[in-house]
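Need Putative 2-aminoethylphosphonate ABC transporter ATP-binding protein's 3D structure for a figure. Predict it.
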Amino acid sequence: MKHESISGRPAVALGDVAMQEAAAKPKPAYLRISGLWKSFGDFLALRDVSLSIAEGEFVCFLGPSGCGKTTLLRAIAGLDLQTRGTIHQAGRDISGLPPSKRDYGIVFQSYALFPNLTIERNVAFGLENSRRPRAEIDRRVGELLALVGLSGQAKKYPAQLSGGQQQRIALARAMAISPGLLLLDEPLSALDAKVRVHLRHEIKELQRKLGVTTIMVTHDQEEALSMADRIVVMNHGVIEQVGTPTEIYRHPETLFVADFIGETNQFPTRIAGQGRLAVEATQFLCAPHDLPEGSDAIAVIRPVDVIPHGSAAHGSGTAEGAGTAENLVDATVEEMEFLGAFWRCRLSSPRFGSRILVADFSINAVRRLGIETGGAMQVELPRERVLVFPGKT
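Structure prediction for Putative 2-aminoethylphosphonate ABC transporter ATP-binding protein:
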């Protein structure tokens, strides 16, 4: 859900910023991946991947299909051994160990519950294989079912539970042996939207309560932004960027990350000097960059970062409360799309040439400023939110 910020535009919920900043402070590595390569015949799935994950951290591997995120998770689990490179967990080299010798619990997208076993027997499966006393097993199963809020379902079978309940049982089973590492392979993708939102909150709360180091694979940006302490963005078998949700969203290091995480406007441009760029025949101020003057580039600004200032006489200067004049644009509202919590507006302006600027305005801002299709308005492109990446015009 988007909320209106002080500026009158919708703000994207990225979780607890203070918690994310605390998670970003250096901690001793619990899982250390060094120079990992993985090939399947001629296909190179992972290319020189290195990553450190701290104890108790919740990390999401995020990227499009085929980017290597699931391959990396399976290498950590020992299900697909790497071609070369090393993996250390809690100081122990597990690079060549079989899955049974590694300290982790795993939850798959399909849940993989045993349909012929009751819920309590599913949760107890790993404990029974470790030959623990029956009283200890029963006590642990009771604790876990209570933890996931399904104590009353112990005698039922998986087919008698909803998808969300089955996923919670899969989590309880994975946690039964108190693993040092919890691996989640797109655990919510098979659920409907409302259940996904509810369950991702439950998973995060459970992870915080238990303090278990967790890695989750997902292609859902919102899922990663709301759950992770850090996000590992992957593409074509390499890591594009690692950072907190706030860092990934607000400070993307590559055009791929900017484009993959959230919505973006992209304008071919030419660098007109430090902190300046040219779109068509007009210049804008932009965030600092190290690109040489005269070079081709791609300017990026997110729809949520466009600030509405209402109508203003064309060429009459700045609207009240507006920012830098060079980044104020007189525009025409070509189209408005209602998306529940906000309006997505498509704006045209001679300063953009034939390009359309997409902007997301809150319902309150649209009502207050009288924004309507076909109307004239003025918008501001905050210079610190106009990012520049190398690219072809």
